[in-house]
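INFO batch 0412 | record 1 of 1 | parsing
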Amino acid sequence: MRRRTGLGGVGAIQKQKQAESKYKEKSAEIAQQQLTKLSEQMEVFREKLQEFAIKHKKDIRKDPEFRRAFQMMCANVGVDPLHSSTNFWTKMLGVGDIYYELAVQVVEICMALNHRTGGVMDIGELYQRLLRSRKASSKSDADISVDDVERAIEKMAILGNGIQLIKCRSTSIVQSTSSELNLDQNEVIKLAQELEGRVTAPVLCEKLNWSATKAERALNDLTMEGVVWVDEPGPGRPGSSTAYWFPGLFKVASR
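INFO prediction complete | emitting tokens
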């Protein structure tokens, strides 16, 4: 004989489904309440951040370390003081003006030195040249840091103007070549920075675990781009490898 489910069993299943439905509704309600509360807290924090910015406007504009810490505070709540020239932050603080000025000066210096650097320069050299240029022209009363220079370049890179940062272990390299470098070429540049601006094909094979073909191709491409100087071994150096120098890096290393 077939055993039929009793009415009590059906009722229990229905009650369980109703309980699960109410649990889901309550969970969604609690989640929405928490989200609303969090949004309100973030809005209050943004308002406090604005009050802080107004109070310390002078320090934010003139002190690069204070400005860096302030920008980190902004990032934590999703505020970008450089996002728009019409928003509160740039209107009230003029922070955007600082980076706009820097961006223009970075472009001027990079373009003026490209014939010597090949479009590759250590951020430290660019920073020192910016300091001298700003001091000579008195374009701004705001002190700047390397962090400010990197932020200005990163903002420009979004616009695709050809100037970008290559991050190394302990520093950054500014790339302002006429065409964008590929990943292999960037790896060569990073290694050259560590080796005082000089690399060879055998060194690339050893340090980067590359094949000879890959190393030669990357070096030839950089030579064609005018980024490196080629130092062919002379008659008195039998067995020596061709050296490739990055003029925008070895002068920094020799200081």
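INFO post-check: The radius of gyration is 29 Å.
INFO record closed
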